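Input record (one chain):
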Amino acid sequence: MVRRATAVSLACLLAAGLIPPLPDGSAAGAGAALRSGGRAGGSVRGGQHAEQHPRHHAGQHAEYRAGHPAGQHAEPRAGRHAEPHTGQRPMPGPARAPVPRSPKPEDVAKVVGELGRRLAGVTPPTHITVPTRVHVIASGPDRQVSEETVKAQIEVLNAAYAGKFGGVDTGVRFRLDTISVRRSAAWFTDPVGNEKVMKKALHEGGADTLNLYIAQLSELMLGFASYPYWYAGAPALDGVVIDWRSLPGGAMTNYNQGFTGVHEIGHWLGLFHTFENGCREPGDGIDDTPAEARPTEACPQDKDTCADRPGKDPAHNFMDYAHDRCMWEFTAGQAHRMHEMWAAFRASSAT
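The corresponding structure, as predicted from the sequence alone:
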């Protein structure tokens, strides 16, 4: 399975008609200038977000656990992130269940360009506290996830974003406001296929509120998430879905330290995978995450897939696909990008 569940891609939402296309002009000019995740007008590495690894979002950005098809935004167990799928992916032959997809490579520059325009004259916050509402989906009378486990996941989030495992303190913290339990066998076993109805019934708050859904994804998916710039077009679908077995102490071998949640929420805050666009510009749009040709599998000690580009692969970055024990950092550029995306798309003044 891929590590990160892939969130549903921007392309997927565009196809579903849920959000307007980004201006074509955003890809070049401003896009190339924001590559670093630094301020608008700075140089950009330009990366987008699509995952297909055991960690990937359904319909949005979904991640698969182990192997994941290139160019997809769902993450298998080997790749974590998947995005909520807001519409069935058109496929020939018999009808199939919704599958998370990822943004197209060119979307990175477009998003970065739009970010540059939105940030004109705006000063991003230095600290962000995210109101968090957790929705535990249970298959029956006996719930799979206790309140203690939910609180442990929130502790992991706060430690990871504070740089306590490594990397920088991003200045982002999560405040657990509520934990609700909804019993539905259908939602529990197929949160991707039931995403619309589930989120319509449970979603709370606005663009600045994280709705974290905990259910059971397929064997090839760890979770999926939505991006900040999708909110205006589909506010009810905003949020992150993760597999309950990926929570701290869970049953998902190699993915049970709570880092699937860290990864998926990174997408929700506006980060793309570190391997976005491979060795090509604009990459993931962040200057201090070296280019990476393909997702990291397992726990390599030395990986350099873009030998002609500066730096070795960011294999230990939370936005890659390594095993949990080998992920431990966000970079300063990623931290700044989260604050930029917050100011542009999630702060109350931006909505």
